[in-house]
Amino acid sequence: MRGFVRAAAMAGVLGTAAVLAVPTASAASGPREAAPECVTDSQTHTHGRGEIKICVENGQARVTGWLEDLLPGGGWGSPDGGCVIWWITYRTASGTELEGSTMACPHFGGAAYKEFDYDSDVQNITGVEKLTLGTAWA
Fold first, then answer.
1. What is the rounded distance in angstroms from the CA atom of residue 40 to the CA atom of residue 50?
2. What is the distance between the alpha carbons of residues 117 and 65, in angstroms, rounded to a whole number?
3. Vertex 71 angle, CA 69 and 75, to 5°
C-alpha cells in the first residue's frame, strides 16, 4: 500500500511539473501590441494658452486638447495678428517631423477657444521630441 501511495504522490508531482512547464496560449502566440505611450503638456504665454495630450501607439498618434487665443484682435497686427497653435515635433523612423495642431484663430472669423481630437497624419512615429505653444498665420 505504501508503494502505491508513494507512486501516486510521485506521479502527482511529475504531472504538476509538466503542466507548469507548458506555455500558456497567450505567451506562445507571439508579441503583443504595446500599450500607447502618452505625453501631456500645458503652456501659457501672452498670446495664448492650452493643453495637449499625444498618445503614440503602433507608429500612429492621437492628439487631443484645447487652445485659447488671449489676444484675439481683428486681424493682422491687432493686437498680435497670429493664431494660436501647438507645434509638435515627432521622432519618426526616418528622423524628426514637425506638425501643427488645430488653430484657435479669431483674427479671421474663427473661435478664440478651440478643442481638438484627431489622428496625426505623420507616419512611423517613435515618440514626441518637443511641444511648443506658438503662433501661426492662416
1. 11
2. 7
3. 100
Rg, C-alpha atoms of the chain: 28
- The burial of 133, by beta-carbon neighbours within 10 Å (0-12 exposed, 13-18 middle, 19 or more buried), is given as buried
Relative to beta strand 60-69, strand 37-44 is: unpaired
Residues 64-118 have pLDDT tens digits of 999 999 987 665 655 666 889 999 999 999 999 999 999 998 877 788 999 999 9
Nearest to 113 by CA among 127, 98, 103, 128: 103
DSSP of 98-136: EEE---B-GGGT--SEEEEEEE-S--SEEEEEEEEEEEE
